[in-house]
Amino acid sequence: MFSVISAGIAPGFALLCYFYLKDEYDKEPLKDVFRVFIIGGILVFPIMFIQYVLDVEQVFQHPILKAFISVSFFEEFFKWFFLYFLIYKTTLIDEHYDGIVYGVSISLGFATVENILYLLSFGLEYAIGRAFLPVSSHALFGVIMGYYFGKAKMTNDQTTSRFIFFSILIPFLLHGLYDYILLSINFWVQIMIVFMIFLWCFALHKVKKAKHAQNEIHAHRHSIDL
After folding, report:
1. DSSP letters of 86-144?
2. Cβ distance 206 to 144 under 8 Å?
3. Short-list 127, 148, 157, 152, CA closest to 202
4. What residue spans define the domains of the chain?
5. Cα–Cα distance, 24 to 56 (Å, whole number)
6. With 70 as the cut, is the pLDDT of residue 129 above it?
7. Is the CB of residue 140 less than 8 Å from the CB of residue 199?
8. Which of 48, 141, 144, 176 lies 20 to 30 A from 196 at CA?
9. d(Cα 161, Cα 151) in Å, to the nearest integer?
10. Quick check: 68 and 75 in contact, CB under 8 A?
11. What is the pTM of this model?
12. Tens-place pLDDT, residues 159-183
């Protein structure tokens, strides 16, 4: 059991460290990052219960509805809801990249607990595949959600509400597409490879933009201090 739990935890912590360490200025307190990670993990249980009820009652049988509503909507909305009220509405986000840190944290908390439960049920042989697909995809959805939260927080005009809307809309659409590929396409491996390459490029582009905006702010502050 120890090896299964270790395999379930490892990819989530590795990705969290990767994105956390890319923050070059005023890193977020580890206690806050870990707290959000734990919240993400706890969210697995109510969401799994909702999904179980929907599945038993056969509420969403069509693959599109199952992928976009039963899976994507509930998972991304719950993560978005807690990020919005516990992180965005507080003073924790004070730089562009901070949103990414917390978005990745809550998403990887969710993905890590989900991964452990899956490996305990189906075996260690699925660990590598799940590290590359569900765990990393959740991290990337979190990057995108967090990017737009950071963008909204650092914008003081009429575009703020638009960025808040994007913070739920884009992860929801991408997550739904991800699950639709898994549920409905026979040659899903080839399509998924292309999709994951796109997802990594898209998310890392958002990381680059957040870091660039952050660098500009710090450069401006430094010039004022001089």
Report:
1. IIITTTS--STTHHHHHHHHHHHHHHHHHHHHHHHHH-GGGHHHHIIIIIHHHHHHHHH
2. yes
3. 148
4. 2-225
5. 47
6. yes
7. yes
8. 48
9. 10
10. no
11. 0.93
12. 899 999 999 999 999 999 999 999 8
Task: Give the amino acid at 44.
Answer: V
Tokens of 179: 């699950």
Could you write out the DSSP letters of every residue in 52-84?
Answer: HHHHHTT---SHHHIIIIIIIIHHHHHHHHHII
Let me know: does 91 contact 123? Beta carbons within 8 Å.
no
Place of tokens 């507080």: 90
Q: What is the pLDDT of residue 212?
A: 87
- Cα(220)–Cα(214) distance, rounded to whole angstroms? 10
Question: Taking residues 190-209, what's their average pLDDT?
Answer: 96
Q: Report yes or no: 211 and 22 within 8 Å, Cβ to Cβ.
A: yes
Residue 187: predicted pLDDT? 86
